[in-house]
């Protein structure tokens, strides 16, 4: 259970890091993903670097763990890309990815940061995600804390 939670935590941290790239791990494992342009590893005679070549230092079990993690990350990032809704209140605004989510639209319940929705509402009244007409914008903290949605402004 603890290990699973750690994996989830690591996954969300890695996927939230804009510098993290799955191809980096693919590359470490010697999987077919070309190195970034500019690296000098592509000399004709040089064997491609792969963790699989270093069995003295990395045993099969460890290698399997890395491969497992890669598979997990691959599916998690695919899910994250496919999901249109944030999965936790810690998520960043899905519009700008610069601010945390701070506003909930009524009545559809979709979310963004206040900067995005305030700017959007100057010209539009439809939800970014489902195009429902937004009647009001609630404070995300308030909605999250009370668990209820009030129509008061
Ligand atoms: Zn935003
Ligand atoms: Zn919506």
UniProtKB/TrEMBL annotation:
Top-rank taxon of the source lineage equals: Eukaryota
The answer, when asked if Membrane is one of the entry's keywords, is no
Per UniProt, residues of the RING-type domain are 93-131
Q: State the Gene Ontology BP annotations.
A: protein ubiquitination; proteolysis involved in protein catabolic process
One Pfam match, given by its short name, reads: zf-C3HC4_3
Reaction(s) catalysed (UniProt annotation): S-ubiquitinyl-[E2 ubiquitin-conjugating enzyme]-L-cysteine + [acceptor protein]-L-lysine = [E2 ubiquitin-conjugating enzyme]-L-cysteine + N(6)-ubiquitinyl-[acceptor protein]-L-lysine
For this chain, one GO molecular function annotation is:
ubiquitin protein ligase activity
Task: Report the GO terms under cellular component.
Answer: cytoplasm
Protein name as catalogued: RING-type E3 ubiquitin transferase
User: What species is given as this protein's source?
Assistant: Fukomys damarensis
